[in-house]
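Q: Sequence in, structure out?
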Amino acid sequence: MMMIFGIPAPLLFGQLLLGLINGAFYAMLALGLSIIFGMLNIINFAHGALFMMGAFAAWILLQYLGIGYFPALILSPILIGLFGIVLERTLISRLYKLDHLYGLLLTFGLALVIEGLFRNYYGSSGMPYNIPAALQGATDLGFMYLPIYRAWVVVAAVVVCFATWAIIEKTFLGARLRAATENPALVRAFGINVPRLITITYGCGVALAAFAGVLAAPIYSVNPDMGDNFINTVFAIVVIGGMGSILGSILTGFGLGVIEGLTKVFYPQASATVIFLVMVIVLLFMPRGLFGKAA
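A: Exactly. Output:
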């Protein structure tokens, strides 16, 4: 058996793959959080609950309507994104001129309410969601077996994350969004509907969380607490990458997922805390984060 640093290659590469998969979810959730904070200045603590709702939407579409995985991958983000738009219009829009703490408290309360409702109706045991037939099986790479579905998750996350970054940073629509958050009065003077842009931005950030939830459904059991397993780590990743930095959230999410996976091989005792240790070190030397902008 091939050994690398005294560790069997299948074990090392297997943990590297797990790190990439976790990193994919970290990156997508951190991206949604960064979009909402960077554009709206709202710390969206309900993001984990919306991620969970995306997974549940896919499960409900399959169980009650017979709608399979790939249609659900499109429908679920749209449905949860629309739910996010309703939240933004009815509740969150009232907090834009207030301190960040009010938004954090409101979204934290929303997360508790949403998770409580799902827990009351579906319980906490979790429901299985089968991998679609087209993505079942594994490929023999010689040094390890690569599960096709897990490879799909990584590829889909990379495509969605960098496509979102390109839209925000390289297109006319993205320029409008950035301008609407930096100088809304000036943008309004050009006849652009700023509240509508803000609402669409929040809906898109929520849709990203739901998309990640659908991808996660076949890997993790669909349960009301699945968002809690990610959200604290994702907030740390957003801080490390730089609050509101789109590219920083993507690169930091994937990078720290890999670091976490490798830590499980070389020093398992630290795997649960390594990301928070990195956060402490980064904030000591770079308080604005790795990719954050100076105030």
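The chain has one domain: 13-115+144-285.
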